[in-house]
Design brief:
Layout (H helix, E strand, L loop, with lengths): L1 H25 L2 H8 L3 H32 L6 H33 L5 H7 L1 H59 L2 H17 L1 H21 L5 E2 H19 L3 E6 L8 E2 L3 H11 L9 E7 L4 E7 L12 H13 L5 E4 L3 E7 L3
Parallel strand pairs: 2-4
Antiparallel strand pairs: 1-3, 4-5, 5-7, 6-7
Helix pairs in contact: 1-3, 1-6, 3-4, 3-6, 4-6, 6-11, 7-8, 8-9
Protein name: Sensor histidine kinase YesM
Organism: Pedobacter cryoconitis
GO molecular function: phosphorelay sensor kinase activity
Amino acid sequence: MKRSKAKSALLTAFTFISSYITVFIIFPNSYWRDYFNLPLSGIITDILVNLLFCVLLVELSLFIDRRLNKKISWMVHPLKRLLTQTLFQVLGVLFLIICLGAIYLIFGNHANTQPPYLNIRQSLYTIVLIILWPLMVSALNTGDFLLTNWKTATLKSAEFEIKAAQNKQLASEIELQALKLQLDPHFVFNNLSVLSELILQDQQLGYEYTKNFTKVYRYLLVNSKKKLIPLHEELKFLDAYLFLIKNRMGDGCIFQIDISESRLNMLIPPVTLQLFIENALKYNRTVEEDPLIVRIYSNDDDELVVVNNLLPLIKKHDSTGLGLKNIIDRYALLGDKMPEIEKNAQTFTIKVPLIK
């Protein structure tokens, strides 16, 4: 707003000064002697009317430019815009010249003066020069408009390039994190330890454990680098993953899953649920007397909700936040609705959008 007013003031000053320079160039010295011999009231009237004319001319020129900016783009139809703008500017200044002449006829006669603009208006050459004023104003305003747009476009282009570089780096980091999840030595070691014990105790259970362990690892290897997968595939993976968890931790954790069938074909970043389960297990106790309860369900807002009760560990782990950050970053790359995290004294809740 301030910039617009400053621009109008500068253009008005430019036009006002240019008008007198034009008259000075066109008219001889005798004209100026007669001009300064006019009564003071006549000179003041001429200056004020000329200033009013310049203000109206600038405002009309800027108004025409603003209206045409919405109707005809310089980038799309440059020739049409040039011709249309020139036509409206010429018609506008002719209208102002007629109005100015009428003002001089009224106030000039009343002041008993011979206003210079009656002589200017009688000169076709002078009128042509006056018509050039709004065209010059329009040219300056258009140049400022195009320069501003060019600067804005350049800044946006630079921002897009920076954002693209950031997204590329982010994608690389997420891919690296996904690779770490695939080859997590603790994950492999813990499950192999449990498997060796189960084989000695119950060969059938050991076989089932091996089969589910294979499903989990195959899923990690095949899908962890994908952007999205159907929810029903993630749930199949989760079923195998929870089989490992239950046999590793016993009854210290309970999982409750309630997903609407209408949302099974919606999409979700792969390994999302594993990261949420790992997050719950890492920061909470899992004892049979007071089990960790993890609920996974869908809501009416097309969101997947994971809620667990809080059972803080006596010796807390240092939180890196990489698991949750991985999911949030992946949704940021997708450019969709972002996950929501809610925590109170009793529960920890994560909501992630399901993508259609």
